[in-house]
Design brief:
The chain is of the alpha+beta class and 523 residues long. Helix 21 (470-487) packs antiparallel against helix 22 (495-522). The chain has 22 helices and 9 strands.
Length: 523
């Protein structure tokens, strides 16, 4: 579409077959797709030839504008078919070329090109022919009006002003013939935006591309108005943005469209993120809070690899919320473990236990966010120092306290998977303060918590134990062994960690001793 060939009034005429096409309001003749055109041409070739002098069927179009016709021809090197006497788009060919070919010759001729003719407005008043040569051997001749094209298209206005007289313009290598024809047809419409209603977004983007090429400003603006108002689905958003972003340098006003995906704010939307976190944490509806927590976690995981360290979404604010939840949780645990609490009303006790569950669930969600942002080491320090909270843990019913153990389990998993790297003292303190409460709640977690992954948690606990010095490994694993031999599967199964510790304790010294003896013998 980048090159035009301008011809004078003696440009060679061609021969066409009449094909009916759709008539739209305002005299716009819509060009069918290439597949439909080729199918129509094939069907017409199979029909018997009409008698010479027969009149075409009456048009259903308005009396002001003549009904459009699409004419179709296959270019060949052999003698062309007999001309039709009643075609207004056809010039008479020389007599020696008018002899009809036998059916056998027609069937053997190679099909090289389909020739299509489209008319706009009052065809009998047309004074310009534009020919488009597209893919798959399709060429379209458009009978148009110079004043319409020059008025609407800066490209055609330039061509028509620099060359005189001009009656024929050819466009070779046209990438999108169908849309090119439709875009020129839009020049004949009083309201282009109205014509775009119910069009698809991909088709409007194709029209926008051609309109920009032709310098059809009214159409470009109408396409942008359409894109600003219509919803985008799936991959359409990226296609729209990539198609119009370069128009920012032009005076087309693409900003309203781009504002749907781009904000005027130059700083990171930290305040918005903090507001979202606050709304979720203070939600009073269990289902809504649960669903939004899952959604926010999913979205944060999706963009975790694309955000820079400067965009780490207010880690300080997250820690402030963690501290508030920890303080509230400790206060509630003290209240629930008080000797006078059993004498309180049932409604009060249920309210306290419900608040404990809410604060623990919020803290677990914040832990997930921090782990996902690779910023959970400080929280591991905060959690391992909650010795008072850990001491009160056994005084509450398991049903009310088990989410606290989920926080501990999540930290063990993070250590085991290398999602955070706390110091040895922090790991030691985490096991000393919180491993026994986790073991006390383990049976409930297995059967009463759907999100609990036993295998993952046991691997995390074992890996955390095995990062400590061998003497500390022995102390913790022997304590676990005593519990495991009493309650079995109601306790974490740390046999894999036990095997590693066993080999380190009993096998490795022997192997090293044997190696030293062999080395000393050689020397």
């Amino acid at each position: 579409m980048a090159e035009f060939k301008v011809g004078g009034p003696d440009a060679r005429a061609t021969k066409f077959r009449n094909v009916p096409i759709a008539v739209t309001p305002e005299g716009f003749w819509c060009c069918p797709s290439q597949t439909v055109l080729q199918k129509t041409a094939k069907n017409q070739n199979q029909q018997p030839k009409p008698k010479v002098g027969a009149s075409p069927p009456a048009s259903k179009a308005s009396s002001v504008q003549r009904a459009p016709t699409i004419s179709l021809e296959k270019r060949t090197h052999s003698t062309p078919t007999r001309p039709r006497a009643n075609s207004e788009e056809q010039r008479c060919l020389p007599a020696d070329n008018a002899t009809p070919n036998p059916p056998k010759v027609v069937s053997e001729r190679p099909q090289k090109q389909h020739k299509i003719s489209v008319g706009f407005g009052q065809i009998e008043m047309s004074d310009l022919r534009v020919v488009l040569y597209g893919k798959d051997g399709v060429a379209v001749k458009m009978s148009v009006h110079k004043n319409i094209l020059a008025e609407n298209s800066t490209l055609f206005a330039d061509k028509l002003s620099t060359q005189s007289p001009v009656s024929n313009i050819e466009v070779p290598d046209c990438e999108d013939v169908e849309i090119y024809v439709e875009t020129i047809g839009l020049m004949y419409c009083n309201d282009v935006k109205q014509r775009l209603i119910k069009q698809s977004v991909p088709r409007v983007l194709r029209i926008l591309k051609v309109a920009e090429l032709l310098g059809f400003r009214a159409c470009v603006l109408s396409c942008l108005n359409y894109l600003e108002a219509v919803p985008w689905a799936g991959e359409e958003e990226e296609n729209v943005v990539s198609s119009i972003r370069h128009l920012q340098t032009e005076d087309y006003g693409v900003t309203p469209v781009l504002k749907r995906v781009c904000s005027d704010l130059t700083s990171l939307p930290n305040d918005t993120f903090v507001r979202i976190i606050e709304l979720v944490l203070k939600s009073s509806d269990d289902r809504g809070r649960r669903e939004m927590k899952s959604l926010v976690l999913k979205l944060l995981k999706e963009n975790s690899t694309s955000t820079s360290s400067s965009a780490d979404l207010c880690v300080d604010t997250l820690y402030r919320y963690c501290q508030n939840s920890l303080e509230s949780l400790l206060t509630l645990f003290k209240q629930a473990s008080d000797s006078d609490f059993s004498e309180q009303s049932l409604d009060l006790k249920e309210a306290v236990f419900r608040q404990i569950t809410l604060e623990a669930d919020n803290l677990l969600w914040l832990t997930e966010i921090l782990v996902g942002r690779n910023a959970a080491e400080e929280f591991a320090v905060m959690w391992s120092n909650q010795r008072e909270l850990g001491g009160l843990h056994s005084k509450l019913p398991t049903k009310s306290r088990h989410l606290v153990s989920c926080i501990t389990a999540r930290l063990f998993v993070a250590v085991g998977k290398g999602e955070m790297l706390p110091s040895k003292d922090t790991r030691q303190l985490l096991l000393d303060v919180w491993l026994q409460p986790l073991m006390d709640d383990y049976n409930w977690l297995q059967h009463g918590c759907r999100s609990f992954d036993r295998t993952l948690v046991e691997e995390g606990i074992g890996s955390t134990i095995l990062t400590l010095p061998l003497e500390d490994q022995q102390t913790i694993l022997l304590s676990w062994l005593g519990s495991f031999l009493k309650v079995g599967n109601s306790s974490p199964n740390l046999q894999k960690a036990f095997e590693v510790w066993w080999r380190r304790t009993f096998v490795r010294p022997y192997i090293e001793q044997q190696g030293n003896q062999l080395q000393s013998g050689r020397s």
